[in-house]
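WARN no homologs supplied; continuing
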Amino acid sequence: MRKFLMTTTMACLLVASGSAQRQAAAGSPISGSIRSAFDMVKEYLTKSAAMVPEAKYSFKPAGVAAEVRTFGQIIGHVANANYMFCGSVTGQPMQGETGPGGVDYEKKTAKADLQKALADSFAFCDKAYASVTDAAGGQAITSLPIGPTTKIGALAFNNAHDFEHYGNLVTYLRAMGMVPPSSAPAK
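OK structure emitted
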């Protein structure tokens, strides 16, 4: 019985620690941790973009300055920035803060266009996160407006940026009477 309990406990721990397994399998616990945080914010942002009706993509809090972004503009801004940060890691830097071909997703207004831009930018970043190991993460990057950094630094900054704007969206979602994905009960 004791052996059964130990085996069951170990199996549960292994299943519960999927990100730790990925990190150990890759032999890169630092870059694996960075990737796990990216996967989390990617899910939150994707769910946020999906749950808001198209008519609310133009929402921004009442009484704020004109330069404050709408919900849709934040989604477009995140897509643009994902391309910028992840492109620097993969050696495909973008022109300014835009997507491929110089498209400024922040200027898009249709929900479907913005969801696609966000999904495509995440797919682009998936390749960047997959390409960086702990050993390669220290390679220098000088093409970003944040100043000189490393590949790991660029990916960590991308995570921070995505979480920063997810925080904006949390406020917008609450103001629209919605429960943000990170606060929603598990299904």
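The longest strand covers residues 140-141.
OK
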